[in-house]
Specification:
Elements (H helix, E strand, L loop, with lengths): L17 H7 L14 H10 L1 H21 L4 E9 L4 H14 L12 H9 L1 H8 L2 E5 L5 E5 H4 L7 H15 E6 L4 E8 L2 H58 L7 H36 L5 E5 L12 H32 L1 H19 L19
Antiparallel strand pairs: 1-5, 1-6, 2-3, 4-5
Helix pairs in contact: 3-11, 6-8, 9-10, 11-12
Length: 388
């Protein structure tokens, strides 16, 4: 029986198909985004989105510069000082080198290193003392008040402890401290809206540093004096015992030059008396030095630049910020253009998948508007498949 050949029918392609339109335009429907584009095609895409590269950077530039112009001007008062390291300049230079290497030198007071002062000034306990001090500041209405920084910074809401901690956070942002390990110079700067307030806070910081040094030195000197006094008393008793032993030996052995044993015993007792006497002299010197240190009230830091009233506000750096905003805006425009190109390619390459994505997006928006729908059991979810 002869098989009859039935010709195969083919459907005519849809001339409005996105795939055919992409191919007619000379584009590859499988190319998503800018991957695979030639440099000339990439330039073409950038020129097609030229408005983005003009509008977005300019808007961001205007926003940054506008906020900078509207914002309040800041005034800075700074203090620059050098800690006094014992042992001269050679020991100070060696201490700075040792700090860079992370090594502690013996004989160097670690409370007089530049890094210690930076840590001290930025510590919360130190800033808390600065906050609780009263200052004379200018109100927004032009009147002057005398109050602590909690009231001046207007952080008085809530409990006192919480308000103080909030003000400490604000002051930590307004105060900066840094050190130069090579020169040992420490710089502390205070920035506020009021130049007089910045000067007062800087002076208060310097006063608290001097108070800390005086209190620390006095405490250390007191402990040193008490220890030296106790040890000096014991050393004097030991000296008297050695002298009594020497005296008793001489009384018992009035003629000892002819006996080597007696001469050796005499010399040993004499050396013990001399050693005890030298020890008493050294302890007496240390005791006197500790008493002097305990009563001394001189500063432990050398002021290189005292706080001064700022005659002009700080520079805002609007030019640099504007240039940065233009660069960031150009990058954002490039990202937007890339996303637009990617979506356009994806829609033309697979329109049906794009419709599924758009439907899922609409369903997600609807769920966000009505969160209760998320917990509802949708029809058909988890049901058994129909029998074949």
């Amino acid at each position: 029986m002869e098989m009859q050949h039935i010709p195969k029918t083919t459907s005519m392609p849809d001339p409005h198909s996105p795939v055919l339109q992409a191919r007619a335009a000379g584009e590859d429907p499988s190319d998503n985004g800018w991957i695979g584009l030639t440099p000339l095609e990439a330039v073409k895409v950038l020129l097609q989105h030229r408005r983005l590269f003009v509008v977005i950077p300019l808007v961001l530039f205007a926003l940054v510069v506008g906020l900078g112009l509207v914002g309040a001007r800041l005034y800075t008062s700074s203090v620059v000082f050098v800690p006094q390291l014992g042992g001269g300049s050679a020991l100070g230079a060696a201490s700075g080198l040792a700090e860079q290497l992370g090594i502690s030198l013996p004989g160097v007071d670690l409370t007089q290193t530049p890094d210690f002062y930076v840590t001290l000034v930025t510590s919360r306990s130190f800033l808390r003392d600065v906050v609780n001090t009263k200052y004379r500041a200018k109100n927004d209405d032009g009147t002057y008040i005398t109050a602590d920084l909690v009231t001046i910074f207007k952080d008085g809401g809530g409990a006192r402890g919480t308000a103080v901690e909030n003000t400490v956070d604000d002051l930590a942002e307004s105060l900066s401290a840094g050190s130069n390990l090579k020169t040992g110079i420490v710089t502390v700067a205070v920035r506020t809206k009021d130049p007089a307030l910045s000067l007062q806070i800087a002076n208060r910081v310097l006063q608290l540093i001097n108070d800390f040094n005086a209190r620390t030195r006095r405490t250390h000197a007191t402990e040193e004096r008490e220890f030296t006094a106790a040890r000096l008393t014991e050393a004097r008793k030991e000296l008297h015992s050695a002298e009594d032993a020497l005296q008793a030996y001489q009384e018992q052995n009035r003629i000892f030059q002819g006996s080597p044993v007696l001469v050796l015993g005499m010399e040993r007792l004499q050396r013990e008396v001399v050693r005890r006497d030298q020890l008493v002299s050294q302890l007496a010197q240390r005791y006197d030095q500790a008493r002097i240190e305990e009563a001394r009230n001189t500063a432990s830091i050398t002021i290189m630049e005292a706080p001064a009233l700022a005659s002009r506000p700080d520079r805002r750096g609007l030019l640099v910020q504007g240039l940065i905003s233009l660069v960031v805006g150009s990058l954002i425009a490039l990202l937007v253009a890339w996303v637009h190109q990617f979506i356009s390619k994806y829609r033309r390459a697979d329109p049906f998948a794009w419709e599924d994505v758009r439907d899922a997006w609409r369903a997600t928006i609807a769920d966000l508007r009505h969160p209760s729908r998320i917990f509802r059991r949708r029809p058909g979810l988890g049901a058994a498949p129909p029998a074949a």
